[in-house]
Amino acid sequence: MNVSQFISTLYEASHTHPNRHDMKIGILQTGLAPDELKPTFGEYPGFFERLLDGNGFTFESWAVVNNIFPSGPDDAEGWLITGSKHGAYEDHDWIPPLEQLIRDIMDADRPLIGVCFGHQIIAQALGGTVEKFDGGWVVGQQSYAFEDQEMTINAWHQDQVVKAPTGATVAATSEYCKNAALLYPGKAYTVQPHPEYGDDFIQGLIDTRGKGVVPDDLMQKAQSRMGQPLSNAVMAKQFATFFREGRLS
Q1: I want to staple 165 with a disulfide (CB 3.0 to 4.6 A). Which of 7, 47, 127, 179 is the partner?
Q2: Catalytic one of 116, 119, 157, 177
Q3: Is 177 tagged catalytic?
Q4: Other C-beta atoms within 10 Å of 50: how many?
Q5: What's the whole-model pTM score?
């Protein structure tokens, strides 16, 4: 093999295997974990670092909920927006700049993923509508119908996207959530449920945030479902593929 052939081989290898370099993912933290659960589970960015471990990603997080923002879309190669106890439609001073950052990330062609509140705020920033669900709370393991498979993922929400933005396609639905996942082709992928949550964290939320807020029968139903296999690893693979290639599979 001569020098030119060797260089050509290296070029092909680097372009055939996108995982050969670490991709930096910026995590925009929009909520704070309950104080009682932090010693065991940590803060929300760590949930996603664990979920996406092994995919060749590095991470940096910004607590936008505390008005700590990156300088712009170029601070990371891909972006992820976490869940939150707040409503996307609430009057918080950090929400308008977050919506602008979302639009800037989309314009900059940086892949963007949103989970729960992240799913909702991305839709709202792009012209969709987020409201409290008429059917009330959705908690614990839920079944979601994707195009090619059923997934079981934990949920914890009352708000949801009731009107998807123009240009978004519905990637998954469930009995209690019509727009359970939205795909903005080549731009963003957002999901209402929490693939970063295990049953143990749902139990923690029931203990710390559920009582007196979520109806007792829904919490009991969620507890009765615990222990069934979750599809978290399958969705983690979707996330990783979208970050790397702008598609789900």
Answers
A1: 127
A2: 116
A3: no
A4: 14
A5: 0.90
Residue pair 181/150 in contact (Cβ under 8 Å)? The answer is no
Q: Is 196 a catalytic residue?
A: yes
The single residue of 86, 119, 157, 194 carrying the catalytic annotation is 194
Cα(238)–Cα(249) distance, rounded to whole angstroms? Answer: 6
Is the distance from CB of 79 to CB of 26 less than 8 angstroms?
Answer: yes
pLDDT along the chain (249 residues), means of 10: 44 43 96 96 98 97 98 98 97 98 98 98 98 95 95 97 97 97 97 98 96 95 97 98 94
Rounded distance between C-alpha atoms, residue 164 and residue 176, angstroms: 16
What is the C-alpha to C-alpha distance for residues 61 and 7, in angstroms, rounded to an integer?
37
The CA distance from 242 to 249, in Å, is 8
pLDDT score, position 21: 79
10 Å Cβ neighbour count for 152? 16
Measured in whole angstroms, how far is the alpha carbon of residue 161 from the centre of its chain? 14
Residue in the structure block whose two tokens are 């704070």: 32
Cα–Cα distance for residue pair 194/120, rounded to 1 Å? 13
